[in-house]
Design goal:
Belongs to the peptidase S11 family. It is built from 11 helices and 16 strands. The N terminus is likely disordered.
Length: about 375
Protein backbone atom coordinates (compact mmCIF):
# COMPACT_ATOMS: atom_id res chain seq x y z
CA UNK A 1 0.00 0.00 0.00
CA UNK A 2 1.39 3.42 -0.95
CA UNK A 3 1.77 5.68 2.11
CA UNK A 4 1.07 9.44 2.10
CA UNK A 5 4.68 10.01 3.22
CA UNK A 6 6.00 8.15 0.20
CA UNK A 7 3.76 10.13 -2.16
CA UNK A 8 4.84 13.41 -0.57
CA UNK A 9 8.50 12.46 -0.91
CA UNK A 10 8.03 11.32 -4.51
CA UNK A 11 6.38 14.64 -5.40
CA UNK A 12 9.21 16.58 -3.75
CA UNK A 13 11.82 14.58 -5.62
CA UNK A 14 10.22 15.26 -8.97
CA UNK A 15 9.87 18.95 -8.09
CA UNK A 16 13.62 19.15 -7.52
CA UNK A 17 14.38 17.32 -10.72
CA UNK A 18 12.03 19.52 -12.73
CA UNK A 19 13.71 22.64 -11.36
CA UNK A 20 17.19 21.53 -12.38
CA UNK A 21 16.59 19.51 -15.56
CA UNK A 22 13.02 20.27 -16.52
CA UNK A 23 13.27 19.30 -20.15
CA UNK A 24 14.62 15.81 -19.41
CA UNK A 25 13.02 15.04 -16.03
CA UNK A 26 11.12 11.94 -17.27
CA UNK A 27 14.49 10.24 -17.90
CA UNK A 28 15.54 10.50 -14.24
CA UNK A 29 14.02 8.38 -11.46
CA UNK A 30 13.50 9.80 -7.96
CA UNK A 31 16.47 9.52 -5.58
CA UNK A 32 16.83 6.54 -3.24
CA UNK A 33 15.39 6.58 0.27
CA UNK A 34 17.98 8.35 2.47
CA UNK A 35 17.83 7.78 6.23
CA UNK A 36 18.76 11.30 7.29
CA UNK A 37 17.09 14.44 8.61
CA UNK A 38 18.25 16.43 5.59
CA UNK A 39 20.36 16.04 2.48
CA UNK A 40 21.45 17.74 -0.74
CA UNK A 41 23.15 16.35 -3.83
CA UNK A 42 24.88 19.05 -5.89
CA UNK A 43 26.77 19.15 -9.18
CA UNK A 44 30.06 20.83 -8.29
CA UNK A 45 30.66 22.49 -11.66
CA UNK A 46 27.29 24.23 -11.99
CA UNK A 47 26.04 24.35 -8.42
CA UNK A 48 22.80 22.73 -9.63
CA UNK A 49 20.93 20.82 -6.91
CA UNK A 50 20.13 17.39 -8.30
CA UNK A 51 18.23 16.01 -5.31
CA UNK A 52 17.33 17.21 -1.84
CA UNK A 53 15.20 16.62 1.22
CA UNK A 54 14.70 19.56 3.59
CA UNK A 55 17.93 20.95 2.17
CA UNK A 56 17.34 24.46 3.54
CA UNK A 57 16.24 23.39 7.02
CA UNK A 58 18.39 24.92 9.75
CA UNK A 59 20.14 22.22 11.75
CA UNK A 60 23.20 21.99 14.01
CA UNK A 61 26.23 21.30 11.77
CA UNK A 62 28.58 19.98 14.46
CA UNK A 63 32.16 19.75 13.15
CA UNK A 64 31.10 20.52 9.57
CA UNK A 65 31.63 24.04 10.95
CA UNK A 66 35.36 23.48 10.64
CA UNK A 67 35.00 23.57 6.86
CA UNK A 68 34.44 27.31 7.20
CA UNK A 69 37.29 27.64 9.69
CA UNK A 70 39.65 25.93 7.24
CA UNK A 71 38.24 27.84 4.26
CA UNK A 72 38.95 31.20 5.88
CA UNK A 73 42.47 30.01 6.71
CA UNK A 74 42.94 29.13 3.02
CA UNK A 75 41.74 32.58 1.95
CA UNK A 76 44.05 34.27 4.46
CA UNK A 77 47.02 32.31 3.11
CA UNK A 78 46.09 33.25 -0.45
CA UNK A 79 45.99 36.91 0.58
CA UNK A 80 49.42 36.64 2.19
CA UNK A 81 48.15 37.59 5.65
CA UNK A 82 49.26 34.29 7.18
CA UNK A 83 51.73 31.68 5.94
CA UNK A 84 51.99 27.89 6.33
CA UNK A 85 55.25 28.24 8.25
CA UNK A 86 53.93 30.79 10.77
CA UNK A 87 54.25 29.53 14.34
CA UNK A 88 51.18 29.83 16.55
CA UNK A 89 51.39 29.88 20.34
CA UNK A 90 48.65 27.68 21.81
CA UNK A 91 46.40 29.52 24.26
CA UNK A 92 44.92 28.01 27.39
CA UNK A 93 41.45 28.39 25.86
CA UNK A 94 42.44 26.33 22.81
CA UNK A 95 44.14 23.70 24.98
CA UNK A 96 41.20 23.36 27.42
CA UNK A 97 38.44 23.07 24.80
CA UNK A 98 36.75 19.67 24.99
CA UNK A 99 35.59 17.35 22.24
CA UNK A 100 37.78 16.05 19.41
CA UNK A 101 41.40 17.15 19.72
CA UNK A 102 44.65 17.46 17.83
CA UNK A 103 46.31 17.30 21.30
CA UNK A 104 48.33 20.50 21.08
CA UNK A 105 49.84 21.71 24.37
CA UNK A 106 49.32 25.06 26.04
CA UNK A 107 52.20 27.50 25.53
CA UNK A 108 53.77 25.39 22.77
CA UNK A 109 54.14 26.65 19.20
CA UNK A 110 52.56 24.85 16.25
CA UNK A 111 52.80 25.80 12.58
CA UNK A 112 49.79 27.05 10.63
CA UNK A 113 50.26 24.12 8.25
CA UNK A 114 50.07 21.56 11.07
CA UNK A 115 47.03 23.28 12.56
CA UNK A 116 45.37 23.20 9.13
CA UNK A 117 45.90 19.43 8.95
CA UNK A 118 44.68 19.06 12.53
CA UNK A 119 41.45 20.90 11.74
CA UNK A 120 40.61 18.93 8.60
CA UNK A 121 41.88 15.42 9.31
CA UNK A 122 41.73 15.17 13.12
CA UNK A 123 38.78 17.56 13.52
CA UNK A 124 40.65 19.22 16.37
CA UNK A 125 38.65 21.74 18.38
CA UNK A 126 41.93 22.89 19.92
CA UNK A 127 43.48 23.41 16.48
CA UNK A 128 40.39 25.31 15.26
CA UNK A 129 40.47 27.78 18.14
CA UNK A 130 44.24 28.24 17.83
CA UNK A 131 43.82 29.03 14.12
CA UNK A 132 40.95 31.40 14.81
CA UNK A 133 42.95 33.29 17.42
CA UNK A 134 45.98 33.50 15.13
CA UNK A 135 43.94 34.95 12.25
CA UNK A 136 41.62 37.33 14.12
CA UNK A 137 43.03 37.75 17.62
CA UNK A 138 40.10 35.99 19.28
CA UNK A 139 37.55 33.34 18.46
CA UNK A 140 34.73 35.90 18.71
CA UNK A 141 36.38 38.15 16.13
CA UNK A 142 37.00 35.14 13.90
CA UNK A 143 33.31 34.18 14.10
CA UNK A 144 32.47 37.57 12.58
CA UNK A 145 34.68 36.64 9.62
CA UNK A 146 32.90 33.28 9.34
CA UNK A 147 29.45 34.87 9.22
CA UNK A 148 30.55 37.54 6.74
CA UNK A 149 31.98 34.86 4.44
CA UNK A 150 28.83 32.75 4.76
CA UNK A 151 26.78 35.76 3.69
CA UNK A 152 29.09 36.43 0.73
CA UNK A 153 28.75 32.84 -0.46
CA UNK A 154 24.96 32.97 -0.26
CA UNK A 155 24.64 30.61 2.72
CA UNK A 156 21.24 31.99 3.71
CA UNK A 157 20.45 29.50 6.47
CA UNK A 158 23.74 29.60 8.32
CA UNK A 159 24.89 31.39 11.47
CA UNK A 160 28.04 30.58 13.41
CA UNK A 161 28.80 31.25 17.08
CA UNK A 162 32.13 29.42 17.29
CA UNK A 163 34.93 28.02 15.14
CA UNK A 164 34.43 24.39 16.17
CA UNK A 165 30.76 23.42 15.92
CA UNK A 166 30.21 22.85 19.63
CA UNK A 167 26.46 23.10 20.36
CA UNK A 168 24.82 26.52 20.74
CA UNK A 169 21.17 27.50 20.05
CA UNK A 170 22.25 30.18 17.57
CA UNK A 171 24.76 27.98 15.74
CA UNK A 172 23.16 26.39 12.70
CA UNK A 173 23.52 25.64 9.01
CA UNK A 174 21.80 23.55 6.33
CA UNK A 175 22.71 20.77 3.93
CA UNK A 176 22.35 23.16 0.99
CA UNK A 177 24.60 25.77 2.61
CA UNK A 178 27.27 23.21 3.44
CA UNK A 179 27.23 22.00 -0.17
CA UNK A 180 27.73 25.63 -1.26
CA UNK A 181 30.68 25.92 1.13
CA UNK A 182 32.15 22.63 -0.10
CA UNK A 183 32.00 23.91 -3.68
CA UNK A 184 33.86 27.07 -2.64
CA UNK A 185 36.53 25.03 -0.86
CA UNK A 186 37.05 22.75 -3.87
CA UNK A 187 37.47 25.74 -6.19
CA UNK A 188 39.58 27.88 -3.86
CA UNK A 189 42.92 26.04 -3.82
CA UNK A 190 43.69 22.55 -5.23
CA UNK A 191 46.70 22.12 -2.91
CA UNK A 192 44.67 22.81 0.21
CA UNK A 193 41.74 20.76 -1.01
CA UNK A 194 44.06 17.76 -1.44
CA UNK A 195 44.47 17.66 2.35
CA UNK A 196 40.81 16.68 2.75
CA UNK A 197 41.49 13.23 1.28
CA UNK A 198 44.44 12.38 3.56
CA UNK A 199 43.55 9.35 5.64
CA UNK A 200 45.85 9.94 8.61
CA UNK A 201 47.72 12.73 10.35
CA UNK A 202 50.47 12.11 12.88
CA UNK A 203 50.94 14.79 15.53
CA UNK A 204 52.63 14.67 18.92
CA UNK A 205 53.08 10.92 18.56
CA UNK A 206 49.36 10.33 17.98
CA UNK A 207 48.31 9.04 14.54
CA UNK A 208 44.63 9.85 14.07
CA UNK A 209 42.51 8.66 11.13
CA UNK A 210 40.26 10.79 9.00
CA UNK A 211 36.68 10.04 10.10
CA UNK A 212 35.35 10.06 6.53
CA UNK A 213 34.93 6.32 5.94
CA UNK A 214 34.24 6.83 2.23
CA UNK A 215 37.92 7.65 1.70
CA UNK A 216 38.62 3.96 2.32
CA UNK A 217 35.68 2.64 0.31
CA UNK A 218 35.63 4.68 -2.90
CA UNK A 219 38.72 5.97 -4.69
CA UNK A 220 36.60 8.66 -6.36
CA UNK A 221 35.90 10.30 -2.98
CA UNK A 222 38.48 12.97 -2.06
CA UNK A 223 36.86 14.96 0.78
CA UNK A 224 35.44 16.72 2.74
CA UNK A 225 34.39 16.59 6.43
CA UNK A 226 32.44 14.71 9.09
CA UNK A 227 30.57 16.02 12.10
CA UNK A 228 28.88 14.59 15.16
CA UNK A 229 27.20 15.75 18.35
CA UNK A 230 24.25 14.28 20.25
CA UNK A 231 22.05 17.11 18.96
CA UNK A 232 23.25 17.00 15.33
CA UNK A 233 23.55 13.27 14.90
CA UNK A 234 26.13 11.99 12.41
CA UNK A 235 26.77 14.35 9.48
CA UNK A 236 28.96 14.18 6.39
CA UNK A 237 29.81 16.40 3.46
CA UNK A 238 31.58 14.36 0.77
CA UNK A 239 32.75 15.00 -2.76
CA UNK A 240 33.69 12.54 -5.46
CA UNK A 241 34.99 12.88 -9.00
CA UNK A 242 34.49 10.36 -11.78
CA UNK A 243 35.81 11.34 -15.19
CA UNK A 244 35.00 15.01 -15.69
CA UNK A 245 32.05 14.98 -13.31
CA UNK A 246 32.29 16.02 -9.66
CA UNK A 247 29.40 15.72 -7.20
CA UNK A 248 28.94 16.99 -3.65
CA UNK A 249 26.68 15.26 -1.13
CA UNK A 250 25.75 16.86 2.21
CA UNK A 251 23.93 14.63 4.70
CA UNK A 252 22.69 15.78 8.12
CA UNK A 253 21.37 13.77 11.03
CA UNK A 254 21.99 10.08 10.41
CA UNK A 255 22.08 7.53 13.24
CA UNK A 256 25.68 6.32 13.18
CA UNK A 257 29.11 6.71 11.66
CA UNK A 258 28.41 3.76 9.38
CA UNK A 259 25.01 5.15 8.37
CA UNK A 260 26.31 8.55 7.34
CA UNK A 261 28.85 6.88 5.06
CA UNK A 262 26.31 4.46 3.59
CA UNK A 263 23.61 7.08 2.99
CA UNK A 264 26.07 9.51 1.43
CA UNK A 265 27.39 6.75 -0.85
CA UNK A 266 23.81 6.10 -2.01
CA UNK A 267 23.41 9.73 -3.04
CA UNK A 268 26.71 9.85 -4.91
CA UNK A 269 25.99 6.58 -6.74
CA UNK A 270 22.57 7.89 -7.78
CA UNK A 271 24.06 11.16 -9.06
CA UNK A 272 26.78 9.56 -11.15
CA UNK A 273 24.37 7.00 -12.58
CA UNK A 274 21.60 9.34 -13.68
CA UNK A 275 23.21 12.75 -14.35
CA UNK A 276 25.91 14.15 -16.60
CA UNK A 277 27.68 17.46 -16.09
CA UNK A 278 28.93 19.65 -18.91
CA UNK A 279 31.04 22.79 -18.61
CA UNK A 280 30.83 25.27 -21.50
CA UNK A 281 33.00 28.13 -20.19
CA UNK A 282 35.34 28.51 -17.24
CA UNK A 283 35.30 31.56 -15.01
CA UNK A 284 36.75 34.59 -16.82
CA UNK A 285 36.56 33.01 -20.29
CA UNK A 286 36.13 35.31 -23.30
CA UNK A 287 33.06 34.17 -25.24
CA UNK A 288 32.73 36.59 -28.16
CA UNK A 289 33.34 40.11 -29.50
CA UNK A 290 30.37 42.48 -29.31
CA UNK A 291 30.04 45.46 -31.71
CA UNK A 292 30.20 48.88 -30.04
CA UNK A 293 28.65 52.07 -31.41
CA UNK A 294 30.12 55.56 -30.89
CA UNK A 295 33.20 54.07 -29.23
CA UNK A 296 36.95 54.48 -29.46
CA UNK A 297 36.96 50.80 -30.51
CA UNK A 298 34.54 49.05 -32.83
CA UNK A 299 34.03 46.07 -30.51
CA UNK A 300 34.51 44.86 -26.96
CA UNK A 301 35.49 41.42 -25.71
CA UNK A 302 32.69 39.75 -23.76
CA UNK A 303 32.90 36.86 -21.34
CA UNK A 304 31.52 35.30 -18.15
CA UNK A 305 32.20 35.99 -14.48
CA UNK A 306 31.65 32.43 -13.32
CA UNK A 307 31.76 28.87 -14.59
CA UNK A 308 28.99 28.20 -17.10
CA UNK A 309 27.95 24.59 -16.58
CA UNK A 310 24.83 22.47 -16.31
CA UNK A 311 23.92 19.04 -15.04
CA UNK A 312 21.32 17.12 -17.02
CA UNK A 313 19.96 13.63 -17.35
CA UNK A 314 22.60 11.07 -18.35
CA UNK A 315 23.08 10.92 -22.10
CA UNK A 316 21.54 14.35 -22.75
CA UNK A 317 24.57 16.64 -22.30
CA UNK A 318 25.77 16.32 -25.92
CA UNK A 319 22.44 17.72 -27.12
CA UNK A 320 23.08 21.09 -25.45
CA UNK A 321 24.47 24.20 -27.15
CA UNK A 322 25.69 27.52 -25.73
CA UNK A 323 24.65 30.74 -27.50
CA UNK A 324 25.96 34.24 -26.80
CA UNK A 325 23.18 36.81 -27.23
CA UNK A 326 24.61 40.35 -26.96
CA UNK A 327 22.54 43.50 -26.64
CA UNK A 328 21.45 44.54 -30.16
CA UNK A 329 22.76 48.09 -29.78
CA UNK A 330 25.69 48.66 -27.42
CA UNK A 331 26.72 52.31 -27.19
CA UNK A 332 29.97 53.54 -25.62
CA UNK A 333 31.16 54.16 -23.02
CA UNK A 334 31.30 50.54 -21.86
CA UNK A 335 32.88 49.73 -18.51
CA UNK A 336 34.62 46.47 -17.68
CA UNK A 337 32.08 44.26 -15.91
CA UNK A 338 29.02 45.84 -17.53
CA UNK A 339 26.30 43.34 -18.45
CA UNK A 340 26.08 43.48 -22.24
CA UNK A 341 23.99 40.42 -23.03
CA UNK A 342 23.25 36.85 -22.02
CA UNK A 343 24.71 33.40 -22.55
CA UNK A 344 22.00 30.79 -22.97
CA UNK A 345 22.37 27.03 -22.68
CA UNK A 346 19.74 25.43 -24.88
CA UNK A 347 18.34 22.03 -25.65
CA UNK A 348 16.62 22.57 -28.95
CA UNK A 349 14.43 25.64 -28.50
CA UNK A 350 14.30 25.33 -24.68
CA UNK A 351 16.54 27.50 -22.50
CA UNK A 352 18.07 25.37 -19.73
CA UNK A 353 20.22 28.07 -18.12
CA UNK A 354 20.93 31.75 -18.67
CA UNK A 355 23.89 33.77 -17.33
CA UNK A 356 25.16 37.30 -17.83
CA UNK A 357 27.50 38.16 -20.69
CA UNK A 358 29.85 40.87 -19.38
CA UNK A 359 32.43 43.21 -20.86
CA UNK A 360 35.95 42.00 -20.04
CA UNK A 361 37.45 45.38 -20.94
CA UNK A 362 36.41 49.02 -21.16
CA UNK A 363 35.68 51.04 -24.29
CA UNK A 364 35.64 54.82 -24.02
CA UNK A 365 33.54 57.13 -26.17
CA UNK A 366 34.92 57.77 -29.62
CA UNK A 367 35.77 61.16 -31.05
CA UNK A 368 33.24 63.71 -32.29
CA UNK A 369 33.17 62.48 -35.90
CA UNK A 370 32.90 58.79 -34.85
CA UNK A 371 29.88 59.60 -32.68
CA UNK A 372 28.21 61.68 -35.43
CA UNK A 373 28.83 59.03 -38.09
CA UNK A 374 27.52 56.22 -35.89
CA UNK A 375 24.44 58.32 -35.02
CA UNK A 376 23.67 58.63 -38.73
CA UNK A 377 24.19 54.88 -39.24
CA UNK A 378 21.94 54.04 -36.30
CA UNK A 379 19.25 56.39 -37.64
CA UNK A 380 19.11 54.67 -40.99
CA UNK A 381 19.36 51.23 -39.41
CA UNK A 382 16.29 52.06 -37.34
CA UNK A 383 14.52 53.59 -40.32
CA UNK A 384 14.99 50.56 -42.56
CA UNK A 385 14.99 47.87 -39.86
Amino acid sequence: MTTPHFLQRLALSFTVLIASVAWSAPLVPPPPEIAAKSYVLMDAASGDVLAQHDGDTRLPPASLTKMMTAYIATLEMQRGRIHPGDMVTISEKAWRTGGSKMFVEVGKQVSVDDLFHGIIIQSGNDASIAMAEHIAGSEDAFVSLMNAEAQRLGMRNTHFTDATGLPHPDHYSSAHDMAILARAIINADPAHYAIYKQKYFLWNGINQPNRNLLLWRDDAVDGLKTGHTEEAGYCLVASAKRGNERLIAAVFGTDSEAARAAETAKLLTYGFRFFDSRTFYNKGAVVTDVPVWKGAARSVKAGVNDVVAVSVAAGEADKLVALAIPKPTLIAPVKQGDVIGKVEIRAGDKVIKQVDLVATESVEQGGFFRRIWDSIRLFFRGLFG
